[in-house]
Every structure is written in C-alpha cells, then in structure tokens.
Amino acid sequence: MVVGAFVLDLSTLGGVNVFPLLAAAPGVAAPILSLRGTIATGVAANLAGLALVYLEREPTRDDLVPFTSLVLLTVIAAVVNVLLRRDRRQLRTSREVAAAVQHAVLPDPPRRVGRLAVASRYEVAHEEAAIGGDLFAIHETPHGIRMLLADVRGKGLEAVRTVNALLGCFREASDHRPDLPGVVRQLEDRMQAGIGQATGAEAESFATAVIAELPPDCSVLRIANRGHSAPLLVHEGKASPLEPTTPSLPLGLGALGGDDVPVDRFDLPVGATLVLFTDGIDEARDADGVFFDPVPVLCRHLPPDPDAVLDALLTAVFRHTGGKLQDDAALFAVTLDE
C-alpha cells in the first residue's frame, strides 16, 4: 500500500490524494505483522509521505495535520497489534487446555480388541476453545465386545459432564448387563438422572447414540440405534447403511417412547468394516449447501483396515467442504479379522 501510494502519486503528478492509502497501511499491518513490522509500516508511510511532499513542493504548516494523524494512526495500530497478540496467546492456551481435557475425557481406544482391529478419529470444527460432546468407546466383556458412539447436545463443560457420565456408565453396564437392551436402559437411566439434577440448558440435554455388540463367537452384530445416523458396513466394494427397523428416541428422551429397546441383528463378515460417525460427517455441507453422502465414497474396494477406511472418508469429506467442517466429528471403525 505504501509503495502503491508512492507510485500513484508520482504517476499522476500529485493529482490524486494518496494520504488515505498511507494512513490505512499501519491499520492493515496490525493484525498480520509483528509489532516491529507494524511500527516499521507506519514509519515507512510517514517517510513516503514526506518524500512526496518534498518532491512536489515546499512543506507548509498545513502538512502538520496529516502527518500528525499518520503518527497517531501508527501508535493506534501498534496498540491494536499488542492486544491482538495477547488475545491470540490466550486463545492458543485455551485451545491447548481444551485439547488436554478432551483427550483426558475421551482417550484413544486400543488398537485391537479381541478379533477386531480398531481405529478412531476426532475432528474439531471450530477454532474457538470449545470442548465437544462427541464420544466413542469399545469394551471387551464376558458378554462380548460392546461399542458406543454418541453425540451429546451442546458443547463446553455441560457436554463434558454428560460425556464423562455416559462413558463411565457404559463401562459399568457393559460389564454387568448380560444383554444389549440392559446396557441401553442403564445409559438411559443415567441420562435421566443427570437431567433431573441439572438446571438451564443442561436440563434439556440428550444424546443420539449407537450401541453395538458382538458376542464372544462374533456370530452376529447387534445394534441399538437411539436416533443416530445409521452405521455403515463396508465390505467388498460396497457400503451398506445398517438402518434400524424401528426408530428410537435419543438417550435422555426415552421416557417419551416407553421402555422397549429395539435391537437389530446384522451379519459382520470376516474382513468387513463397521463405520460409525457423528453428524459432523453426514451433515457436512459444500459451498452450495449440499450435504455430504459417505456411502458413494466407501463404495469402492478399500483394504480391510479401519484406519484406511476412516482416512478415505475424511479425505472425501474435507474435499467436499473445502477443508473445513461445520461441526465436530467423531469417527469410529472396527474390522473383523480371521
């Protein structure tokens, strides 16, 4: 801007007032350069203005006002630069704390559980230091391998409390409940208890969830879907949504739908990959507002490896959205080995 103002003034022989360009330069520099760079920009703008005055005419008393204004604008830009740097440091610290809390609440699952190879991803959409409410877990029990993926309404500490409660309840229920409906009922009871003790927005909390289990012999895949996106079964170049036969309300709203817990049964062939994800994936939109469809992306021959499947899915969704998600996304995948 400083160079452009200088060239413009010379090329028009002073016929154009370039002072606004010189005055704007420090303000533009403040959010993108260092403090030293911002001050240097202001000094350069002042020197360029002085040079133009001396090249065209003798300085007069009237020149004091614009140059004093330019000095003042440089000082203001320097103050803005300091404030912005401070805020960025605070935000960076907050993000680091949020990431540490997120990892403490939701640690990475083991890479193998029984005959299952396991992979997971957690993609944060927002730049602010907000802790999300997406969660996943896998637990091997005497009753088989049990899995949970859920999306709690909201963000922040309220969501973290609910996530923590659901994860602890899931582990306890998985160990002690002999059947999948019992696990779901205990999760529902825990959500209802938390809602009953809460106030404000937390009292209106709920969580969409998929609770799945494989018996010890891995003969059948049982799924209880509580208002969540259907998991995908990826096998031999096909991706099939495992839709529930009977829709169910999310956890926390179960009292409105009765005590019945529908459980669907599916085959999980050897080499097949079960993919679960939160709505940050299937509700991701492109520039035209078109939602992302994960099924066509996974309808191709992929290696029987959950990491490869999740990598392919994430690559496609980021390409669809232009590299940025609109909501946090948790992804969880397991592949049944021999």
Automatic annotation (TrEMBL):
The keyword Kinase does not apply. Signal peptide: none annotated. It is an enzyme of class 3 (hydrolase). Keywords: Hydrolase, Membrane, Transmembrane, Transmembrane helix. Its EC number is 3.1.3.16. One of its GO terms (molecular function) is protein serine/threonine phosphatase activity. InterPro entries: Bact_Sigma-Reg (IPR052016), PPM-type-like_dom_sf (IPR036457), PPM-type_phosphatase-like_dom (IPR001932). The chain crosses the membrane at residues 6-25, 37-55, 67-84. Residues 116-336 form the PPM-type phosphatase domain. It comes from the Bacteria. PANTHER family: STAGE II SPORULATION PROTEIN E (PTHR43156:SF2), STAGE II SPORULATION PROTEIN E-RELATED (PTHR43156). This is PP2C family protein-serine/threonine phosphatase.
